[in-house]
Amino acid sequence: MSSSRKFERHIRNEMYKNDTLQRHSSNLADKEAKLDSFRDKVDMTSRALLECLYEMGITREELELKIKEIRERGWTVNPPSLYKLCPKCGKKIFDYSDREFEATCMYCGTVVGVYPGDVSPSED
């Protein structure tokens, strides 16, 4: 094989590696953006709930006792996947959207409000 063919093969391999790297980087950036969006939803919900609880007279100690009780029931730092049933078709809807507290059923297209606490643990 001539050196020019080896060089061409080397260049094609490098181009393929760079293209693959760019795709992986793009996928990683998308996943980071979704994670940031999810974290923002959780932060906002937590803040709203804490303010409501404090306004209702719940103390920090009572809140910590409730968290301990929930952990003892089996809830871990890594909770199971959560879903809500679509009111139109009955299929499971997982909250993967970037919209605050909304998810779209992938089967019928119904937009459903998804709030922490009104979803069920997934059996999957």
The overall pLDDT, averaged over residues, is 78
Structural class: mainly alpha
Q: How many E strands?
A: 5
- Strand arrangement within the widest β-sheet reads 2-1-5
- What would the principal axes of the Cα set say about the shape? elongated
- The unreliable regions are none
Order of helices and strands: HHEEEEE
Distance between the termini: 54 Å
Helix content: 40-55%
Number of helices: 2
How many domains, in number, for the residues?
2
Radius of gyration: 23 Å
Instruction: Indicate the proportion of strand residues.
Output: 5-15%
Largest sheet: 3 strands, antiparallel
Key terms for this structure?
124 residues, two-stranded antiparallel sheet, 2 helices, single chain, three-stranded antiparallel beta sheet, 2 domains, mainly alpha
